[in-house]
Amino acid sequence: MRKFLHIISFKNTMFWKVTFSRSFQSIIKNIGSFIVFGSFAVGAFFFSRFLTAYLLENVKIGLFLFHRFMSMVLFVFFITINMGNMVVSFSTLYRSPEVNFMLTRPIPHLTIFIIKFLDNFFYSSGTLFLAGFSVLLGYGSYFGFHWHFYVLMMFGVLVPFMFLAGCLAVIILLVLMKLASKVSFKVLVALLVLFYVTQIYLYFTLTSPVELVREVMKYYPYVNLYFGNLDPPVSNYLPNFWISQILFFYVTGNQSTVIGYCALLLLSSAAAFIALVVAGERLFYSTWLTSLTLKSFSIKNFEFTGTLFSFQSRSRIAPQAESILKKEYWQFFREPGQWIHLVVMMLLMIVFLSSVTSMDFGLQDPKLRTSVYLVVYIFDAFLITSIALRFAFPMMSLEGDAYWTIRSSPIRASKVYWTKFFIALVPLFLISLMLALLSNFPYVLLRPLPQVTTVGMALIAIALVSMNFGLGSYFVNFDEKNPIRIASSQGATLTFLLSIVCLIVFVSVYFLPILAVFNSVYYQIPRRNEWLYYALAAIGVFSALVGVATHAIGLKALKRDI
Predict the structure, then answer these.
(1) How far apart are CA 66 and CA 68, in angstroms?
(2) N or C terminus of the chain: which is more exposed, having fewer CB within 10 Å?
(3) Quick check: is 471 in a domain?
């Protein structure tokens, strides 16, 4: 125990020394971080308060529906934390030179395991804590709750909820790595993806948000009643449902039920951590040895010849661009953590799209239809910025110590920059078009709404990829080899928050024109399509400004002395 505390103390000391270095660049970076984080927290607070007031007062969906929608958002939030911790832990526990070194020292492997788990959890969850607490502040402010509500929600609800997701993720990872010695690693990855896809599909099939709206609205205007009979029985075993119950009964004044669900969440988190410690004690060291075998197999089977991207084959692409393109291809696919994470994200995106296109959006109220449309729209954009942050932001940093060869070779740094940027942009641009087209499938007859928002999504994708790649070049870190940790760094967090600000701007610009479209349908009045085109032009100008500014920052950063 003393060794464990000593190592934690040592790591914390190093963290504070690195984070609060007294260099001028570090001071400026910390001031900028404080401004961006503070602005984001204030923006999330007001947005949460506005959205709560809008849905309850203008749309009038009622307390029950409002908290069930929160439960659905929390389910996606839980799955995101769970998958993120699993992928990060795989790279940190089984691909980290630091862990390899520490296991050769006289340190118990359980101590190393717990430290790296906590390091991953707190390292990657800081932004989520900030966002969650800011949203809770806005929510509580609308209802006028006292200070003890925020203490309860932060330490009795939000932290245990996120910690439970992280613990379950690493337990699943340990079990998978144990099975990897007996089952093909590719089969395990396929089973893992199928597991998450099935969870999401079943959850939204059973909860059916549109069906829930229809059933509750039958009792309008008595929509603030509790319609627990509409919840599927499986919901009682889900942590996101517990939180929605806590919030609903806190608003309605049923404190005993609130305490009961809080106790259930806390006990579940504690049980999950105990199970994690037991699993780590029994499985971590043996699975680490298994990972060494898997790594040697992957190196043995890795071939550079006989494929389209072989360095021996030639194409009509300029030689310098061709070499960069092929290097990026092999650098991406030789690391399992890269393509596994991409496959998981893409399959989850497909599940989301299939659920959207199969839904019957037979909602009549124009404000509710506008809200649903914009929620889907902003979720599409959020997927783009998540993929861009995960894969485009670390691209320049992954050059590592070999970046000096680019600076000393007869090739312009700007050529490398633009080639790598278009490698990231092209697939994400195509994904954005696919997302926009499929999301607009239920609205295909409302021309020109689908066409305008599809073009707008493409412009947004260009802006978001430009921001992530440009600022990723500015916040470059050649010492970090793990792309997931690069995408979770302080610079990446700042970039993510700026991306969220951009998304809010985009949605704000589109809100009134889209509301006018649905008003024209509901009230049978002439439609003024020019407002959609004005909004598209504003999105185009804003996207161009974001792209030019971030690319200028990224290109200038390449000239720094490394």
Answers:
(1) 6
(2) N
(3) yes
The answer to whether residues 284 and 376 belong to one domain is no
Q: Do the Cβ atoms of 452 and 510 come closer than 8 Å?
A: no
Instruction: In whole angstroms, give the CA distance from residue 96 to residue 227.
Output: 49
What is the DSSP secondary-structure string of 120-149?
Answer: HHHHHHHHHHHHHHHHHHHHHHHHT--HHH
Q: From CA 156, how far away is CA 133, in angstroms rounded? A: 12
Is residue 295 located within the same domain as residue 352?
Answer: no
Question: In this structure, is residue 308 part of a structural domain?
Answer: no
Asked if residue 3 is part of any domain, the answer here is: no
221 prior amide bond cis, ω within 30: yes
pLDDT per residue as tens digits for the range 513-535: 888 888 877 777 777 778 888 88
Tell me the per-residue pLDDT of 69-121, one tens digit each, with 9 for 90 and over: 888 888 878 887 887 778 778 878 887 778 888 888 888 888 888 888 888 78
What CA–CA distance (Å, rounded) separates 68 from 61?
11
- Total tally of structural domains belonging to the chain: 2
Where a domain ends, among 301, 316, 351?
A: 301
Other CB atoms within 10 Å distance of the CB of residue 411: 17
For residue 300, what pLDDT is reported? 45
Amino acid letter at 19? T
Residues 261 and 389 reside in one and the same domain: no
| Residue 84 and residue 182 in one domain | yes
Q: Which two tokens stand for residue 236?
A: 């009682």
pLDDT in tens, 209-237: 777 777 777 777 777 778 878 888 888 88
> Is residue 314 assigned to a domain?
no
Distance CA 98, CA 94 (A): 10
The pLDDT, as a whole number, for residue 277 is 92
The DSSP output letter for 228 is G
pTM confidence score: 0.70
The answer on 291 and 349 residing in a single domain is no
Distance of CA 316 to the CA centre of its chain: 37
199 and 63 co-located in one domain: yes
